[in-house]
Specification:
It is rod-shaped, with a radius of gyration of 36 Å. It has a domain of 27 residues. Helices cover 74% and strands 0% of the residues.
């Protein structure tokens, strides 16, 4: 009876060890995926910072024909609210 229990415990130990090894591989794979996404996230953050810099925004605005000095348009020199008083 004792040899059967020993063999049974060895088989159970092998099964558990195999399952834990498989789980370890899955964890390692998940860690690699997390690291890859973190690196991509860092690169995207750097790209966002570069594209949102004031110099880049100014260059793009000039490419679209925007100017730094506003054009002022007046509609006459009369004060409309002044003429509405009794």
């Amino acid at each position: 009876m004792a040899p059967i229990l020993v063999v049974l415990f060895v088989v159970v130990e092998l099964l558990v060890t195999n399952e834990l090894a498989g789980f370890g591989r899955k964890v390692a794979e998940a860690d690699r995926s997390i690291e890859a996404v973190s690196e991509e996230n860092q690169l995207l953050n750097e790209k966002i910072a570069s594209l949102s810099s004031l110099i880049t925004i100014d260059q793009k605005a000039r490419e679209f024909g925007m100017t730094t000095t506003p054009v002022v348009i007046t509609m006459g020199g009369e004060d409309v609210a002044f003429h509405l008083q009794p």
